[in-house]
Every structure is written in C-alpha cells, then in structure tokens.
Structure to design on (1275 residues):
C-alpha cells in the first residue's frame, strides 16, 4: 500500500529560471511526481491582433518582430507572404532568394537558442547555452550588417525586402556557412548529442504519439519528432523552396531527445539551403514598388510558413481599406503547448522542465 | 499519394462530401469556403474529420471574424496524408454567439477556442474548460469585437476618435481589482 | 611551586550526574510524547546517557581491561542504529496502514 | 579524576549544551526542530566522549548519530503528514515527569553514595587500534552478532517499508 | 651578497642558511616551535600553551580558507568563462581580481530578508552550520611533514562525520525557509545523503586498508614510504569517492539540491544578503576542503617524490588542492544534471557494489602482502597493475551489463527527401479532454 500524501501545488513560473519568459505552470505534485498540470499564459499579452486593425498593412510588420522575437525574420516573412497573397503581388527573384537566406539564418539562430536553453533546462551549468549563443551571435552579426537590427529585424517588406545586402555580406556569410557553423555543429555533436547524461535525461521524456501529434495540431519539430515527415517548406513551398534540395529530419520516438537532435540536424539542412541559395542568387531588384499604404482588394487569405517553432500561419481579412479588417496569427508556440499536460503528467518535476524546454515555446508568440 | 504542393479544395467539393452524409448541414458554398449550419456543425465536423477524401485530421487553425451583423468562425483543415487544405466557416449570432466546441474532435482546438472565447466572446458548447486565457477574468468585454469599447465614455476605438479628455473618468476602471490574484 | 590560579577537577560523580540527567530527560520524552518518532527520540537520548556513563566508567574506574567500556559503547551505538532503522521503518509502516503515528491512536491489537 | 582546567571547563560547557539541547527536545513544539536539537545533543555528547578520552567512539557517534540517525529521523518525520508534526504530549505527561524525576533522584543518590574504585591511570592515548584489537580478539562473537543484527535490521526495514504493489514507473532510466 | 657569490654556493648549503630559523617557512613547525619556546620562557601554564597554539593554528586555517573563498570566486568564474568561450570577470582590478571583493561588498550591502513564518533560530543558524564543517575538516589535514593542527588518530572518520553534518544544515536551511522549492531541495539532500554515505565510506575503506591507519598524516607517510600515490594503487576508490563526494557537494552533475532550472535555488532560495553569501562561500569552501581530502588521500598530500625537498610541502599541497579543484570546476562546466532517481540508482546500483568489490580485493591484497613477507618493491607495482585492471574491468563490465537501455533508438533522426505522412487512425480529442481540460 503506497503512502498517502497530500499533493502539493508548486508554481513553476511566472518568475522561474526555466520557463522561457513569463509562462506559469501550476504543477500538482505527489512527492517528485506530477499528478496534474495547469498552465497559465497571458502575462505578455499585448493584443496585437486588435492593434493591427488600427494600423496600415506596412505598419504591422514590426508587430511580427515582437511576436516571436527569437525568430523575427520568419514572422516578417509569413506576414508579408499573406499580404502579397491577398493583394496578388509579384516578388522579384532576388528578394525571394534573400528571403530564403534570411529565413534559414533565422532558423539557425532560433534553433541555437532552443538547443542551448534546452540543455540548460537539463541542468548544465551554462556551458552549452554559451556555446550556442556564440553561434547565434555570429548569425545576428550578419543581420546587423544587413538591416541594422539584431533581434527585431523588421527586414521583410510587402513586395520584397527592405534593403539589398551590403558588399561584405556574402563573404561573411560564406565564412559562416562553410567554416564556422559546421565546426560549431561538430562541437555540438560531441558535447550535446553524444552526452549520455542528456540521453538519460531526455530519452523517453515528454513523449508524443503520432496520432496525438496530428490531433493536437502540433507542428514543427514537435510533429517531426513523432515520426511524421511534414514540413511546410516541402508540402507548400513558398518563396523558392521548391528549387532547393534538402531533407526533413524525422525522429523515431517523439521524445525530448528526438526534438533536440532534429533541431541540430535542421540547422545543418539550413546551411545546405543557404549554400544553394547563395550559389543561385540572381541580380535585379530587391523589392517591387508597392505603395506604403497598400489597399488590397476585399477578401481573405491564409498563408503559412515553416517558422523555427512550427507552422506559423497568418489569416488576413481585408475590406479594401488601408488597414486589415481582421488579422489572426496561428501561433505554433501556443498550439504546441496544448499537449503539455499529456506530456508531463506522471513524470517528475525535472522531466517536466526538460519537456517544457524541448517544446521550445516563445512567450511573446504564445501571448501575442 | 500526397499532392506535391498543397492543394486548396474549393468549397463546393467540400460541400459535396458533407452533403453525402448530412444533406442539410451545408448552408452555402463558394470557391473559397463552405458555410455550415451552426445547428448541425458538430456532426459536419465529424464528417470532415472521418471522411476518407476530406481527411481533415489536422486542424490547421481556427479563428473568428466579427462581421458586425454576425460573427464568423473560420476553420482551416488540412490533410497531411493527402496534402490539401480547405476552409470552413460557421456563422453565429452577434449578440449571443454560441457554436459547438470541436475540442472533443481535435484536441488542438482546446487552446484556440479558449482564445476565441476570451477575445471575441464566442461561447463554445461542450468545451471542457471555457475560461479566459490571456485576459483576467473580470475584464469587461471582448476586445476583438468591432464594437468593443476600449475607452471610457463609450468612445469607439480608432486614432481619429481618440478623446482628449473625458470628464469624470480616470482610466482606471478596467484595471483588475486585485492585481496578481486574477480577480 | 606556586598554587595555580585555577584548579578545577572533574570527578566520576560529575559525569555520572550529567548522564543521569540526560537519562531522566530521555525517559520523560519517551514516556510522554504522543508521536512515535518523538518516543524514539527519547530512547535515543537514553542510549546516549548510557554511553556517557559507560565511557565515564571506562575512563575512571580501576580495571584490568579499561577499554571494555568503549567497546560496549560502540556496541550500543551499533545496536541503536539498527534499532532506529527498524523503529522508523515501523513508524512508516504503521503510518501507511493507519495513517497516524500517534501512539495513543494506535490501539488496535490487529491490523 | 581529571585535573586539567581546560578539559574541565570544556566538559561543563559541553554538558550544559547537551542537557540544554535535550531539554529543548522535550520542550519545542515542532517535531522537526526537536530532531534538529536532538542532532545537536548528539554532537554535544560526542564532545563529552572526547573529554572522556574516547575519540573513536566520539567520531563514530558523530558519524552514526548526528550523520545517519538524525537524518533518518528527519526523513521519517517528513514522511508523516504535516498535522502529525506536533511534538505534543499524551496524558502521561505528569506521571512521566514524576517518574523521570524519581529516576534522576535515585541515580544521583546511588552515584553519590557509592564508593567508587577510582584509578589514576590517566587518559588513554589513541584508542582506535586497541579497540580494533578488542573487537577482533576477545569480543569477536558479539562483533559478529552485531553485524548479523545490522543485516537483519536492514532486511527488516526494507520488508517493513516495501510497497505491496509496485506502481509501474515509466521513467526509470535504467 | 653579490650575484657572483651566489653562484659559488651550492644549492644545498644555501638552503642550510635558512634551515631551522623561524622564517624558514618551508616547514611551519619552525615558527610554532619558536612560539612555544617563548611561551614557556614567559611562564605560561601548560594548558594555556595548548589553547594558544590551537588558536594560532585555527586562525591560520580560517585565514587561508577566507582567502580561498574569495580567490576561488574569481578562479571558478574565470575558468568556467574560458570553458564557455567568454572572458569572465575582467573589469575590476588587474584581470578582474578585485571582482570577488566587489561581490562581497554588494552582498553585504543587501538587505537580509527573512520569511515571516520562518523559525528564526534555525533559519539563521543554517548558513553558519553549513560553513563550519568545511572549515573543521582542515584541522586534520596535514600541510607538511610537521604541520598538522590536530593529528587525530581517527582523522578519516572525523572527516566523514563532519561532511555528514553539512548535509543536516542544508536540511535546516530548506526546512526553515518555509518555501516549497526549498523543501524540495532539503528532501532531495536527505535522500541523497542516505544513499551516498555508503559508497563514500566503502570507497575510502580501501585506502585505509592499504595505509593501515586512519590518520591522514599516516596515509601521506604511507605513500611516501612506498613511493606511490594512492590514486595509482586505488584508482577505483578515487573515482568512486570523486563522484560520490561531488554528489554530496551539490555540484553539477549532481546538484539536484539546488537545481536552478528546476527548483530555482533549492535550499537557499529564500536567503539573501550575506546569509546567501555564506552559502555561496561555503560551497566554495566545501569544494576546497574536499579537494584537500582528495589531494591528501590519493595524491600524496605535501609529498611529491623528490620535489618536497626543494619546494615547501604546503605549496605542493596547495598546488594539488587546486589541481583537484580544477577537476570539480571542469565537471561542473561540462555536464548536465542527473535526475534524482537516476542519481540514487547510480549510488545503489553502480558505486556501492563497485566499492564493496574493491574492499574485498584490497583486503586480499593486503593479506597477501603481510603473509608473504615480500618487499613493497615487489608488491606495489603488482598492486598498481592489478587494481588498474580491476578498475577497467569493473567499469567496462558495469557499462556493458547495467547501462541504461536508452540506446533502443538511434541517436540520429531519419531523413526524408519529401513529405511522408502515414495514414493514421483518428484519435478522439474527447478522450484526451476527459482527463480534464484545465482552466
């Protein structure tokens, strides 16, 4: 007969070292084991969907920076694609290649952050996260070189990108892609992927079955770790992804370890894509002439991109005015959270932290 | 075999498949989307999920649009196995919007329906835990509605109508009473 | 040889009185506490008092094998450790079955 | 008789600490605090052992009592529900007090009344080696019995606390 | 004395110039002997000399430890900074050496907050009780051939007893903070102590069996006599002790008691100001004292083959202490944390059996040594070979047969050139939600 104990409620968050922002998880705990999890979000709610109804289409682009502030380029890209789809705007080739390059660089930066933070949640004393930050910094330096900002880039525009790349960009990018990052990924292999303590901590933790993954609308590495080869870049290619050769890394087990290795492999695939895009980069304009206060025809459009967190969708309704009538964001971070309870109940607190880290939420995107 | 690129199913196609099992569930259909009868929507949604051709096992997203006279619920469904995407709309009353919850069918709808309830005020029947998600419980009104009074004194939102000064109002009315407790 | 400033002495009786005081406190704790673990604490106190006494005898009393007292003390510590382990296991087991460790509520003569 | 001022002062300080902490064990209301005071009592008693030139026993006392037994007790206290962590008394408080006082009086009387055969051998030098000799030569049978007792106690403790049906633990890692 | 004259004097006679005077700090006993002599001349009674010399030694040790606690903040941050490909503190003073001073000033300025419902005495005593054992351990550690404060016959047992006391103070801190995170930390410490005391003691038994004494000076002299560091004779005991003690020290990979990413700060969550500073310093002090124990037991302490005739023994000793301390910093900077059940399983299923096998083998070896009557020159190389082979075999065997079965799945993901989704049956969200969609 097991000892009967009163379950204790423990607040993990909103102020906690490993909740990746102001996210709150109320765990009911029996000893070390979690019997129930409630999640509380909304501490970072900025009502972006309402604010966007007051601003012109172009003025809304900075909002997308501040949603997933670790992957601002992807947010920019998704939003611009949806408006272009609504207004039927052609984007020049060069802009499309640049979008692919920056989208993939952003994926590398975001996955670096996710991997490092995940290992920190596993309990490493800052070393992997510092290594990952070092590589993320290299990517952010390139962003700074191009658009002047590191985090909230505001780089994509409706009909292209804001600036053409400077002359010193391509040599720096080639050095990064061919030399620095591959070396860094080899270090990750040794420090992180082959680390047996991480295997012990992350294997069989936070398991998602493929059925549940589809039913719960998971996307991104969460979906792929469950064994489903699904990637918007392959399934619904935007920009020039249909010309790129790359593979979708897919896990076996749906656990936290799979998600981590998938992220690392995706970074390598991103480098592959960037090399191809740089090789094929055409000349020409980086932007079509689109009026700043663009008035798309009345109608609606849903477009989606594969952001580092998952499927980032933008549903835009226009009534023919200068501002969107309705602007809805399908936030992958929020929807990926819906299986948090499934994944954590029955595990220990330490596992729950690892699970939360492996989902890779971004509270700016969860709350919007 | 999946399509190499995502195919957008037209509303008529979807309506055809739904009509085979539920003749009166479809209100109308056009190129882009199909509009369902709110009363029969739960059965229709089950058809969408379990039908072999529609195969809408993946709820891509759901959201709501305030159309001033009514509120439209917008659902996007995808089939990952066949790689197609289609859109379904369910209209509901503007004053007392009530639709059936699809959380029993797609667990991914759970948080999104709570979000719609919070920001648009649509009531989902059959949702296991329909509470506010982003805003605190005592927040007055639902901000995504077009008639949401964001300002004291009945002022409509919008930069042009921003009031200079409202007498007798301090702007503190809508603050939570006890910050931190959510009350 | 001047007399030292301070000339304190320690006799066997002093140590034995301290041991007796410790024993009396332990006895009181063991007899009066409601909680089974509290009772166990009293028993441990009494065992410590016994050890103090044993070591005092070993130190002061005329004997051919003066270290026997210390040998005894080590045995007492060993047995006390075993006793503590079993008693705490008993307390936990009782708690599992009866959901209390208060000895005045453990009054059934069967489980 | 010990006639060294430093040692005598040390003994009385340690005795005061020990008895004071023992009284606190009886007096405090929180069981956890009682356990902590008990640990302090053990440490004080170990100090007294050193004064009585039993350094091996003193160190063993610290290691086993203060290190292990008090930790086990805290463990047991924390396993019981919070409502039972009161260090309260039963109805036997007054009789226990009287009985303890009587025992104290009798023992003190006997102590002071007896004519003890005091030796003037002085303090032992290092005792660990000679204790080891004693354990393995004259006291080898009790020593073995004690080890068997420890074994039995360990098995008994495991059996007593074993859960009847082991719940499936998915995350064993092993 | 000119430089030319210096060249003519051989090294040995140069050393003789200072040998025996109180300023010959190669051996602390020169200084203390002089102090004794003066005290006796001045007519102090015996016991006061005892007390005064004890005080001097204690003050020396506390001064050393205070310095170490300050310097180690800098050392640890710089070393870990290098490992993390960053610089570490480098602003204040040369190489950032004044950073610990700034840290200390900051901590002293901070308000010491105390939870209203905390039992004040226990709450206040806990950081002190946590610091004391780490310092007290140094009493029995030898600093040189004649420099040991308390040459305790049972020095090793004393160290073990002290280290187990530190854990109780961690429990005091966690319990009295009246915070759930702190209580979790405290309970984890208790569970860990119960498990890890056994491999620690059983691992050190091998060392004691070889040396034949529990006096730390005796163990050092044994290593000098036999011309071999104990780590060569007892590699398995060294590994067991290193891992087990890093668990007791609460350092990564076993810092589950203060697991920052899980339970915020564990037992010291509610501490602030200098009370927290004491915990912070005690963590470093305990690490250094454990390094000192390892250096003494396994690495020869102040003895280093012929080197200790030239260099003062205490310098060699401090060098070895910092060598071991670097090992601790290294593991801390590299490894993630175990989960608590894995950590306990590691103690019970790996370390304890290994330690017991080690004790049995060492007992047989010591018996063979004594009964055969052959010289140490024959036996020591044999033991080094046998124990090295035993260590390798045990670790290989345990990894082979008892390793966790996390290799069921490959460590690399599969690669798909195109989307590929299996046709899965639709699960119903109702079942998922029936377990309680929550608010």
């Amino acid at each position: 007969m097991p000892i009967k104990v009163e379950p204790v409620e423990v607040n993990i968050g909103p102020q906690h070292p490993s909740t990746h922002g102001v996210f709150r998880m109320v765990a009911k705990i029996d000893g070390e084991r979690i019997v129930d999890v409630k999640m509380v979000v909304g501490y970072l709610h900025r009502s972006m969907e309402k604010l966007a109804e007051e601003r012109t289409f172009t003025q809304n682009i900075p909002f997308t920076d501040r949603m997933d502030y670790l992957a601002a380029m992807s947010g920019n890209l998704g939003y611009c694609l949806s408006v272009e789809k609504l207004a039927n705007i052609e984007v020049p080739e060069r802009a499309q290649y640049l979008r692919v390059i920056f989208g993939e660089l952003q994926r590398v930066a975001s996955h670096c952050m996710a991997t490092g933070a995940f290992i920190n949640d596993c309990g490493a004393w800052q070393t992997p996260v510092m290594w990952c930050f070092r590589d993320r910094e290299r990517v952010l330096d390139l962003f700074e070189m191009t658009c002047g900002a590191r985090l909230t880039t505001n780089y994509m525009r409706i009909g292209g990108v804001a600036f053409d790349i400077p002359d010193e960009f391509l040599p720096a990018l080639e050095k990064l892609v061919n030399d620095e990052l591959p070396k860094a990924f080899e270090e990750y292999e040794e420090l992180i992927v082959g680390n047996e303590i991480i295997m012990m901590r992350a294997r069989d933790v936070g398991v998602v079955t493929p059925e549940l993954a589809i039913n719960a609308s998971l996307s991104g590495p969460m979906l792929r770790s469950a064994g489903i080869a699904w990637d918007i870049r392959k399934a619904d290619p935007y920009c020039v992804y249909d010309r790129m050769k790359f593979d979708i890394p897919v896990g076996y087990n749906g656990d936290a370890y799979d998600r981590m290795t998938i992220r690392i492999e995706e970074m390598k695939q991103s480098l592959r894509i960037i090399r191809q895009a740089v090789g094929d980069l055409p000349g020409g304009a980086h932007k079509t002439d689109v009026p700043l206060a663009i008035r798309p025809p009345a109608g609606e459009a849903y477009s989606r991109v594969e952001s580092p967190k998952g499927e980032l969708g933008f549903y835009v309704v226009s009534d023919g005015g200068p501002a969107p009538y309705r602007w809805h964001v399908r936030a992958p971070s929020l929807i990926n959270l819906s299986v948090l309870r499934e994944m954590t109940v029955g595990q220990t607190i330490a596992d729950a932290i690892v699970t939360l880290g492996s989902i890779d939420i971004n509270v700016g995107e969860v709350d919007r | 075999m999946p399509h190499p690129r995502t195919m957008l199913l037209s509303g008529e196609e979807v309506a055809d498949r739904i009509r085979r099992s539920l003749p009166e569930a479809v209100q109308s259909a056009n190129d882009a989307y199909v509009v369902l009868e709110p009363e029969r929507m739960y059965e229709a949604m089950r058809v969408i999920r379990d039908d072999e051709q529609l195969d809408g096992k993946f709820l891509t997203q759901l959201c709501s649009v305030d159309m001033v006279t009514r509120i439209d619920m917008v659902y996007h469904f995808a089939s990952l196995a066949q790689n197609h995407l289609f859109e379904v709309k369910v209209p509901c009353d503007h004053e007392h919007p009530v639709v059936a919850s699809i959380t029993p069918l797609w667990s991914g709808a759970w948080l999104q329906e709570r979000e719609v309830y919070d920001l648009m005020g649509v009531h989902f029947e059959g949702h296991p835990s329909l509470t506010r998600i982003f805003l605190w419980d005592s927040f007055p009104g639902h901000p995504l509605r077009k008639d949401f009074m964001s300002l004291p004194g009945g002022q409509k939102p919008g930069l042009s109508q921003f009031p200079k000064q409202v007498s007798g109002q301090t702007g503190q009315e809508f603050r939570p009473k006890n910050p931190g407790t959510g009350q | 040889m001047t007399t030292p400033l301070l000339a304190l002495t320690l006799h066997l009786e002093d140590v034995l009185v301290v041991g007796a005081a410790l024993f009396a406190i332990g006895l009181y704790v063991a007899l009066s506490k409601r909680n089974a673990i509290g009772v166990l604490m009293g028993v441990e106190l009494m065992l410590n008092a016994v050890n103090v006494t044993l070591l005092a005898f070993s130190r002061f009393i005329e004997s051919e094998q003066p270290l026997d007292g210390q040998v005894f003390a080590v045995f007492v510590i060993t047995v006390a450790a075993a006793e503590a382990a079993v008693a705490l296991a008993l307390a936990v087991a009782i708690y599992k079955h009866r959901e209390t460790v208060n000895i005045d509520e453990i009054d059934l003569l069967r489980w | 008789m010990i006639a060294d001022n430093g040692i005598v002062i040390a003994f009385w300080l340690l005795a005061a600490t020990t008895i004071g902490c023992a009284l606190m064990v009886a007096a405090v209301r929180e069981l956890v605090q009682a356990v902590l005071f008990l640990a302090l009592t053990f440490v004080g008693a170990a100090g007294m052992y050193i004064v009585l030139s039993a350094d091996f026993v003193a160190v063993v006392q610290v290691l086993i009592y203060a290190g292990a037994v008090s930790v086990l007790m805290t463990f047991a206290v924390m396993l019981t529900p919070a409502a039972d962590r009161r260090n309260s008394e039963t109805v036997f408080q007054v009789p226990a007090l009287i009985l303890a006082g009587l025992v104290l009086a009798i023992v003190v009387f006997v102590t002071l009344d007896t004519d003890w055969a005091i030796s003037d051998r002085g303090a032992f030098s290092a005792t660990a080696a000679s204790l080891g000799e004693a354990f393995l030569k004259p006291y080898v049978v009790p020593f073995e019995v004690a080890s068997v007792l420890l074994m039995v106690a360990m098995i008994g403790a495991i059996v007593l606390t074993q859960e009847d049906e082991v719940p499936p633990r998915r995350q064993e890692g092993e | 004395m000119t430089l030319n004259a210096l060249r003519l004097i051989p090294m040995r006679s140069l050393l003789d110039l200072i040998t025996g005077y109180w300023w010959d700090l190669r051996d602390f006993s020169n200084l203390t002997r002089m102090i004794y002599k003066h005290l006796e001349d001045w007519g102090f009674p015996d016991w006061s000399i005892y007390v005064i010399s004890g005080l001097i030694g204690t003050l020396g040790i506390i001064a050393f430890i205070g310095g170490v606690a300050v310097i180690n903040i800098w050392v640890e941050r710089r070393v870990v900074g290098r490992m993390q490909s960053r610089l570490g503190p480098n602003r204040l003073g040369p190489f950032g050496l004044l950073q610990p001073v700034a840290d200390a000033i900051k901590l002293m300025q901070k308000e010491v907050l105390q939870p209203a419902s905390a039992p004040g005495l226990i709450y206040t005593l806990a950081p002190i009780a946590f610091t004391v054992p780490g310092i007290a351990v140094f009493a029995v550690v030898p600093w040189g051939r004649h420099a040991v404060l308390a040459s305790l016959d049972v020095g090793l047992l004393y160290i073990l007893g002290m280290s187990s006391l530190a854990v109780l103070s961690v429990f005091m801190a966690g319990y009295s903070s009246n915070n759930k995170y702190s209580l979790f930390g405290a309970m984890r410490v208790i569970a860990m102590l119960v498990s890890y005391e056994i491999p620690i003691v059983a691992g050190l038994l091998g060392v004691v069996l070889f040396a034949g004494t529990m006096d730390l000076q005796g163990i050092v002299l044994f290593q000098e006599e036999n011309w071999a560091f104990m780590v060569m004779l007892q590699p398995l005991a060294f590994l067991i002790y290193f891992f087990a003690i890093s668990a007791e020290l609460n350092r990564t990979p076993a810092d589950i008691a203060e697991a920052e990413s899980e339970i915020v700060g564990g037992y010291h969550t509610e501490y602030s100001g200098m009370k927290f500073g004491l915990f912070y310093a005690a963590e470093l002090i305990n690490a250094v004292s454990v390094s000192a124990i390892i250096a003494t037991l396994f690495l020869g302490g102040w003895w280093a083959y012929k080197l200790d005739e030239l260099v003062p023994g205490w310098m060699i000793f401090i060098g070895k202490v910092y060598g071991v301390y670097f090992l601790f910093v290294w593991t801390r900077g590299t490894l993630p944390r175990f989960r608590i059940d894995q950590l306990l399983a590691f103690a019970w299923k790996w370390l304890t059996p290994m330690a017991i096998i080690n004790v049995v083998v060492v007992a047989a070896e010591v018996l063979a040594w004594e009964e055969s009557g052959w010289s140490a020159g024959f036996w020591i190389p044999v033991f080094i070979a046998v124990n090295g082979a035993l260590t390798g075999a045990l670790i290989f065997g345990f990894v082979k047969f008892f390793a966790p079965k996390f290799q069921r799945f490959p460590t690399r993901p599969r690669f798909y050139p195109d989307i590929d989704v299996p046709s899965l049956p639709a699960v119903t969200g109702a079942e998922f939600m029936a377990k309680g969609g929550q608010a």
Residues 166 and 250 of chain E are 11 Å apart (CA to CA). Chain E has one domain: 93-407. The radius of gyration of chain E is 26 Å. Chain E touches chain C at residues 45 (CB under 8 Å).
